Amino acid sequence: MKLEVIESVNIHDDIKIGLPSRDKYIAKYIQTIKNLSKAGIKVICYNFMPVFDWLRTDLHHQLADGSNAMMYEQSKLPKNPEALMAHMKSGSNGFSLPGWEPERLAALQDLFDAYKDVDEAKLVENLKYFLDAVIPVCEKYDVRMAMHPDDPPKPLFGLPRIFKNRDDMLRIEKLYESRYNGFTICTGSLGENQNNDLPAIIREFVPKDRVPFMHVRNIKFVNQQGDFHESAHPSSEGSLDMFEIMKALHDTDYDGYIRPDHGRNIWNEDGRPGYGLYDRALGITYLLGLWEALEKTKG
């Protein structure tokens, strides 16, 4: 088995904010791209979300089958950054959560203050500045950038979000016209917006060779307001049609990388929230089963 995808290589906040010091951090990012290329890496999954990479209001929501999974309810969102950090830390089971590393978020309020003048347009401008610098290097060293959607895909705490839907993807791909400026289509993150047609998005962007990496997972909406909890991968366990998602990939001859994503903690596993070993293993067997069925029934 070869290691060919890295997730994630975090982007320094000075780059996202657009501070003069960003060039120093971009230079370090470029060196990382070169180093990863030498190690055989073909894809870097990254995000351009201010402050935190993802957010849930309950890291251990109890499901009817006795398992637990992460949940998001808008009404239960902590009211300030300090309460948010305390909430995530208390529910982490002692693990370091991806995107919530304590050393990075020790001064969370300072980070929020640093972003106070960064709106959506400014964040897009800063993304373009970053892409203009790194994509030529990616082309030279054959490493594809795969931007991950915002999770959840909507503004929170006044922070801008720029990868929420199809229109955002069209805008991002035009920032630098290259197959090395690509996307990680996370069906869970994009699926949290009930207006996103995931199979249609796949059918539009895969043929353009802009999707080197897929996160395929399910979620379940609990009300009309869009609150949700994460679930097991099968369609019957959530609100997303996993068969149609995989069929869209199959129909477009997708040859990129796919992995299962967040799931439940099952069988008394006391692990990192969202990253239970057993349910993700069940998830990949389910996805492989769907793919085999699609292969054997194609016309």
Q: Would you give an account of this structure?
A:
A hairpin with a 5-residue loop joins strand 3 and strand 4. The chain contains 11 helices and 10 strands. By secondary structure, the protein is an alpha/beta fold. The protein is globular, with a radius of gyration of 19 Å. The chain has a single domain, classed as TIM Barrel (Alpha-Beta Barrel). The longest helix is centred in the middle third of the chain and has 22 residues. Helix 2 runs parallel beside helix 6 and helix 10 packs across helix 11. The strands form 2 sheets. It has a 6-stranded parallel beta sheet.
CATH superfamily: Divalent-metal-dependent TIM barrel enzymes
**Largest sheet, described in full?**
6 strands, parallel
Count of distinct structural domains: 1
Shape-level CATH architecture: Alpha-Beta Barrel
Radius of gyration: 19 Å
Strand tally is 10
What's the SSE pattern? EHHEEEHHHHEHEHHEEEHEH
